[in-house]
Specification:
Layout (H helix, E strand, L loop, with lengths): L3 E7 L3 H12 L4 E4 L14 E3 H7 L6 E5 L1 E5 L5 E5 L5 E4 L1 H14 L3 E3 L6 E4 L4 E4 L8 E8 L7 H4 L8 E10 L6 E4 L9 E6 L4 E8 L3 H9 L2 H4 L10 E6 L7 E2 L2 E3 L15 H21 L4 H30 L3 H10 L3 H10 L6 H7 L3 H6 L6
Parallel strand pairs: 1-2, 1-11, 2-8, 5-13, 11-18
Antiparallel strand pairs: 3-7, 4-7, 5-6, 9-10, 10-11, 12-15, 12-16, 13-14, 14-15, 17-18
Helix pairs in contact: 1-3, 1-7, 7-8
């Protein structure tokens, strides 16, 4: 008979690996299943993680390839403003090395990893969770509890009666050679990334990640982005290889059931302002690990006990997600001329002072709420937005 693990984590991304590290550290026998041959492969991600995440979660710094302290915003007509925080706002990591490093921490605490193991079927019964790679798999993996950390798009939550996030945008990105890129550059406008934004993020040397998020026609908008004058004149990669992936813009209806928790992008735990998912996913993974420790102590992995996880993470990030989504919806209704005017406002001393006082890389609610009350912004968007 197969051994019974305390916890099986499905997916060796940042959220899954951090959860595994914390459950293993707490003395729970932990197994991580990863469909690829290593962690951090085939990832479409800017790799930006705010400074707070490293401090709060004690994350490994060896995979950091650059630090970011300034952002320049470009409007549709070419207006711009630059915000310099005066110190590191965030760090860019090599995702393969970052995911591997987190996995190494989990292994150092006794977690077991199985690569090339694609969990396709999950079933919950009163005694255990059973996980199989196929219908013909006669050797199921057994656990007292499972954590689904697969990223967005898996049908595993649905198999246990949980409806995953439905609203999405698409992220299109390529890693390129690009000259003269020092700051993060953000590009705005209907012709660039309708209802969202595009970016250029400096890595090491002349390497950069260029991409965008948008609701539809992402490959077309990506090719248009490469022809933007500021991008085209500095681009040194003839035919960038675009990666395309869906990103949830809403949370899962419910992230727990008997013996199962859902974390990270699979649960829609993604910043609704920027679509960044690493930090929020890891924060929620830590809450999942705490809930599992408490459940193990009670020998009770029922929904009644595991519901504490949902209460914890929605209490921590729920209002942030709602406020960010509201801002994105309002922004999506702005015309290019209104976006131009907003970027122009960013150069004003009073606006810069407000940003310096309230801006946090991962927490945007206070800045959004305060900004939406400013007469200057109301004037820009007086076409019935607010």
């Amino acid at each position: 008979m197969n051994p019974m693990f305390d916890v099986v984590v499905i997916g060796a991304g940042p959220a899954g690996n951090l959860c595994a590290y914390l459950t293993a550290k707490a003395g729970l026998s932990t197994l991580v299943l990863e469909e690829h041959e290593a962690a951090g492969l085939f990832v479409n991600c800017t790799g930006i993680i705010g400074k707070e995440a490293f401090q709060r979660l004690d994350l490994p710094t060896e995979p950091v390839v650059n630090s970011l302290q300034a952002i320049t915003f470009y409007s549709p007509s070419g207006r711009f403003f630059r915000y310099d925080s005066g110190g590191p706002l965030a760090y860019v990591v090599d995702r393969h090395r970052f995911d591997q490093a987190l996995g190494g921490l989990a292994q150092s605490e006794g977690a077991e990893f199985r690569y090339n193991c694609h969990a396709r079927l999950i079933r919950v019964d009163p005694q255990a969770v059973e996980i199989r790679q196929s219908e013909e798999d006669s050797n199921p993996i057994l656990a007292r509890a499972a954590v689904i950390a697969t990223g967005f798009g898996s049908n595993l939550p649905l198999q246990v009666g949980l409806q995953g996030p439905r609203a999405i945008v698409y992220g299109a990105q390529a890693e390129v050679e690009m000259e003269g890129l020092k700051d993060v550059e953000i590009y705005l406008g209907k012709g660039i990334a309708p209802e969202a934004f595009a970016w250029a993020v400096p890595l090491q040397g002349s390497r950069a990640r260029v991409g965008l998020v948008t609701q539809q026609k992402a490959p077309i908008h990506f090719q248009n982005l490469l022809q933007h004058p500021r991008i085209r004149e500095r681009l040194r990669t003839p035919k960038p290889k675009m990666l395309l992936s869906p990103v949830p813009t809403e949370t899962i209806d419910r992230s727990f059931t008997d013996r199962v928790l859902v974390v990270g992008e699979a649960a829609g735990q993604v910043k609704t302002t920027t679509q960044g998912g690493i930090y929020y996913g890891m924060l929620c993974a830590a809450m999942a690990a705490q809930t599992l420790r408490e459940a193990a102590a009670q020998d009770d992995f029922s929904s009644a006990v595991l519901s504490a996880y949902e209460k914890a993470w929605r209490g921590a990030i729920g209002e942030e997600l709602k406020m960010g989504l509201s801002l994105r919806q309002l922004f999506g209704r702005l015309s290019d001329s209104q976006i131009d005017a907003m970027v122009e406002l960013g150069t004003r001393d009073d606006i810069i002072s407000l940003v310096r006082r309230l801006a946090q890389f991962d927490w945007h609610r206070d800045l959004i709420e305060t900004s939406l009350k400013l007469p200057a912004l109301k004037e820009v968007a007086k076409a019935g937005l607010w």
